[in-house]
Amino acid sequence: MTLRVGVLGTGMIGQDHIRRLTQVLSGVDVVAVNDIDRARAATAAPKGAEVFDTPKALINSDKVDAVVICSWGPAHEEQLLDCIAAGKPVFCEKPLVTSEAAARRVIAAEVAHGTRLVQVGFMRRFDADYRRLKKVIDGGSLGAPLMYHSTHRNASVPEGLYTSDMPLNDTLVHDADISRWLLEDEVAAVEVRVPRRNTRGKDLRDPVMVLLHMGSGAIVDVEISVNIAYGYDIRGEVSCENGVAALPNRPAVVVSDQYGIRQAIPEDWRERFIDAYDQEFREWIVAAGQGTATGPSTWDGYAATLVGDAALRAVDSGAREAITMIEKPALYGKAAARAA
Amino acid sequence: MTLRVGVLGTGMIGQDHIRRLTQVLSGVDVVAVNDIDRARAATAAPKGAEVFDTPKALINSDKVDAVVICSWGPAHEEQLLDCIAAGKPVFCEKPLVTSEAAARRVIAAEVAHGTRLVQVGFMRRFDADYRRLKKVIDGGSLGAPLMYHSTHRNASVPEGLYTSDMPLNDTLVHDADISRWLLEDEVAAVEVRVPRRNTRGKDLRDPVMVLLHMGSGAIVDVEISVNIAYGYDIRGEVSCENGVAALPNRPAVVVSDQYGIRQAIPEDWRERFIDAYDQEFREWIVAAGQGTATGPSTWDGYAATLVGDAALRAVDSGAREAITMIEKPALYGKAAARAA
Amino acid sequence: MTLRVGVLGTGMIGQDHIRRLTQVLSGVDVVAVNDIDRARAATAAPKGAEVFDTPKALINSDKVDAVVICSWGPAHEEQLLDCIAAGKPVFCEKPLVTSEAAARRVIAAEVAHGTRLVQVGFMRRFDADYRRLKKVIDGGSLGAPLMYHSTHRNASVPEGLYTSDMPLNDTLVHDADISRWLLEDEVAAVEVRVPRRNTRGKDLRDPVMVLLHMGSGAIVDVEISVNIAYGYDIRGEVSCENGVAALPNRPAVVVSDQYGIRQAIPEDWRERFIDAYDQEFREWIVAAGQGTATGPSTWDGYAATLVGDAALRAVDSGAREAITMIEKPALYGKAAARAA
Amino acid sequence: MTLRVGVLGTGMIGQDHIRRLTQVLSGVDVVAVNDIDRARAATAAPKGAEVFDTPKALINSDKVDAVVICSWGPAHEEQLLDCIAAGKPVFCEKPLVTSEAAARRVIAAEVAHGTRLVQVGFMRRFDADYRRLKKVIDGGSLGAPLMYHSTHRNASVPEGLYTSDMPLNDTLVHDADISRWLLEDEVAAVEVRVPRRNTRGKDLRDPVMVLLHMGSGAIVDVEISVNIAYGYDIRGEVSCENGVAALPNRPAVVVSDQYGIRQAIPEDWRERFIDAYDQEFREWIVAAGQGTATGPSTWDGYAATLVGDAALRAVDSGAREAITMIEKPALYGKAAARAA
Ligand SMILES: [Mg+2]
Ligand SMILES: [Mg+2]
Ligand SMILES: [Mg+2]
Ligand SMILES: [Mg+2]
Q1: Which residue of C has its CA nearest to B255?
Q2: Predicted ipTM?
Q3: pLDDT tens, residue by residue, C124-174
Q4: Looking at the domain that runs over B128-272+301-321, which CATH code has it been given?
Q5: Contact (Cβ atoms closer than 8 angstroms) between residue C303 and residue C333
């Protein structure tokens, strides 16, 4: 009853997930790996795992019950379609795919298959703090949520590799997804404003301010700062009709010393979300063992793709860029209520 | 050497300032009052103070060294011009005046007079917390300020009296002024977005989200919520190049009981800013005793008027409404550096 | 390579550990159970586990690689000695045993065996917050620890079942152990003071204040309050030569509503330490799989027994009750440095 | 109606009070000064104030309505008795006097006079935070107070000048007084324990731990650390029957930077209690203007003297040193209820 997993892509995130699946979590074995760099795959393969020559061979192997996709984005569509064709549960790191059309093809394939097979790697939904926040909002004692202030700060990004589009089509995806999930709503339109530039990032467009206009009329404002030096700081506050609720501080020793009364800040997303990644896979393993998927879906990946596309349009146009979604297939649950 | 003050307008705020000037502060006496309702003025007059029939008579009386204007907004322009004509220092509650043209006339008169006489009632600049925050930003260790998140929440507003324009032309004035002061910059343009409505306020446009585009490119985003029930909650956070600084929590006993680990929130602006009001007048008394004014100026009142006007235009147009200011008279200091 | 575990005692804590071992943790199976109430054992037994008639039969079964003792305290000595005789790793819930003499017999047996086999259930050492606190102290930047303020508050205790001795010989054990671990020191003497009584507990001796005089001279003061109603609140602060370090608050949504700015408090030890219990067993499984034990040892259980005994003497005598320990066997590491 | 004040003693604290009385507060003038060092008195004298040759001459001058004693402790008794003989209100910095016998002589004189004239300089009672804390306790929602944890930390003390007795007969006085006031109770006995020494203070007895056994049975435990380097940190927490209440943090900007999420700590008592000192005199001026005194009384100074004496006995004896008070004169209010 141990889930036999094949991993596609053995770069940094792939290696981390292999570690997680082999050393941290139970009920799962990594039995197969593949990478465009075969030597890297061989190095990353845990003892006893087979190194496959192609993604398709791995996906279709009888050894493999379920697949984890950690390859680069452009490869995702084909790998996802192959998994669906093989009827195998698949965990896909973000981005789901790299275009709206591709997202719609994956949706069509999964809908044709008839049951969910895909879980997308939006790990924030598995973070205990975000779950606590959602529970408070869902409890209803604060009334309807009207605004959500989301703050997304990175200490630094790799110069040269991280481009000015990436705050909007890469980093923003987490804020977009968590906003949809927290507010149980879709993003109807996107605006982007560009504040005074942070000189630490040279010519990089940083910070950016994004407004997500939700279907209900609630507004999400996002600060994305990617070179803020002091740490990886993820904050969120929901302003409701008669109260507000905010993400807790991360637990950290309260030290009183020459620098004041202070608490440490996580250095990076690994430190901040390590437990969320574990929980994300814990729940995936259970669902995959039953031949299906729960958690963030192909639909959520599609929605995130649309938000990223709209954000890129919005930063160019300066205008409010509307998002038009296809009708939501029943497979992905009922459409968001657009309360007003 | 006691400053002899005349108070114009003895409504709620006028009465509170009379209390402050007679019972809390030193070096000052209230010797004259005037109100459109003479009986109200008589009741509010402290022992020994004369009740004047007209604002002009009070302003021009030899008994009166300096004037405090607490009348309604439309009366301010004439009273201010009379004070300047009489060469008397004057404290003017907000709004300075009710139109851009009026503000320019007051500026012209004061410039012609040659020294500052007017202090406008933007009390937040005298609040110890805001001063601490400014000191940190000015210290420079966090780098340039890029975004300022300002949160302005009222437990409730009087139904019927408080209209949908007032978040923008009344409440916003404090956030606009404190943003200009904290960032040492002017507002170049204003945008307004209207989130899902708070049903507690019925048809009232509440909350509103305001974006102030500062001359430097820094963006200020303001949440104004005026029926949020839980308290009067004023927050602010400046996001800089390599760190952020936030207003402190108000001091309040940390109680651990059946409701959690908790601290009380101020009920209203009187509780929150009571010390700021005292300090505002403390500094006014010193300057007025020297025949002049420091603190928020006619220029600051003019700027606030422009922001309010632009915000009203912006909520109608949905667009970015630019602000065009006259050249800043030397009397009001040097123009804001527009660093970019 | 799955560790096959037998569980002795299937009451509340035994059932919880069975759940943990079967549903939460990996690398482990519960293959055997025993309880003085055979029907209860049968009900608690996971699928496929054998119900043994006696502890000894379970301990000596070839099926069983390692043992978890959750029986009542007076049964622990014999079960521990049987485990050691069988050379099997054993996790023993607190109390290790119920007398100093018994503790010394278990030590003697384990020392004769030559390697560690016993881990005692002091779960606080596995709590992420306490570990963060220890890391800060160990880092040395605050200088030597001089005082440790430990606060141990329970919302309530079961009336009638929880006696006036239990704050000292049951509840205190956790503060004593964590003090020894944090400060890397032994308790040299104990004093107890009894404050004004909490009327919620009727005649119960509650709260109590305990002073632990550590070998180094550091003083630990403990507040034990067991009927404080508002929650389960575990706090700790180490006062050092040039700074202090405190346990973090538990992560909890920061809600601003009519009760203030507030965060929830755990209801009980299950909620507070659920992750610590998991981690405690995670580390035990690794060591037991290697035929040994790490974590809190028989020596630590012996020390806790001595502190409880001394506290009971101290509450009667009102005096400082010294603790005399046997020489520390090398098996348990080097003796605590008694820096002064 | 301006209160004409004479100041005895123009050292550091005397100079600070002269500044306060002349520059900060209203309704008061400093018209006379005296110091054992006449040149120092002349320098410290505000414009127009007379420098007196002797304390008695100042006290008895018709120019002087009320007296502020800032001379050294051994001079207080005679100056207080002279003030009482002259029927003049007097503010006396701590210590009231330097022996129990002297305290009783001052009490006797004031009781014979028939109305209160003396206010002792226990400024914490005027601190807004402590007042908020007392209000919560007095509100009664938390039930009876059972323990009070008081933390008194100084960054440093002057080497050589500050002796090992001073934590107990000088620093402790504030914790003792605030405990009596918060709990509305007397100290019945004192114990002192001496933890491991802070090497920063060389041979200085630092820190010390003091237990105050209150009449009601409530226990106050005090940490006094006088060389803790990181700041001046005054904390307090009252543990009650069904909840706890703690002093708020001082308001300070919340900075997130490379040192963490942090708030500054006051450097010294001047910074921490500057507002309390102002308020202390504000209330004194009002009472003195009416020819009497409110606030901390001769009785409170007497109680503090007894606690300091008992603490010195206790550190030598290692035992619980009881305090026996004379019957409380009606002039000082009713005796503390000894609820149990
Ligand atoms: Mg992810
Ligand atoms: Mg104002
Ligand atoms: Mg335990
Ligand atoms: Mg004092």
Answers
A1: C262
A2: 0.94
A3: 999 999 999 999 999 999 999 999 999 999 999 998 899 999 999 999 999
A4: 3.30.360.10
A5: no
